[in-house]
Amino acid sequence: MNLALIAHDKKKETLIQFVSAYKLIFEKHNLYATYTTGKKIMEATGLSVQFVKSGPLGGDQQIGAMIANNEIDLVIFFRDPLTAQPHEPDVSALLRLCDVYNIPLASNMGTAEVLIHGLERGDFNWRTVLDEQ
Ligand SMILES: O=C(CO)COP(=O)(O)O
């Protein structure tokens, strides 16, 4: 499956720890990430990650476009709810597209824990059925 990984600056360390903890699951999937997040994950875990641009430079919109094209199956986006983001409209647009296309989205570690176990268990295999249509 194609997974999108994104974290705002104050949440990047949390996402790195999360991906490291579940590396054995993440390595079975195609990982896409906004630039800074992806670079840090790759350096910390050695996992192969495909980058889009950094979030403030349009990366969230690129991930959104991938969602609209049915190219992303699950999004883990650790948002920082306590810091204003200059590209907040892009963030909202990405979250909106997840809802438009029923893409599973974790915006914090609590939900990400549930999604990652569901992913491993095959709970999202319905996505591959959609891909074949
Ligand atoms: O800003 C982001 C998401 O809105 C993330 O972008 P970076 O991964 O480039 O820091």
TrEMBL record:
GO terms for biological process: methylglyoxal biosynthetic process. GO terms for molecular function: methylglyoxal synthase activity. Gene3D superfamilies: Methylglyoxal synthase-like domain. Its EC number is 4.2.3.3. It catalyses: dihydroxyacetone phosphate = methylglyoxal + phosphate. Substrate binds at H8, K12, S54, G55, H87. This is Methylglyoxal synthase. The gene is mgsA.
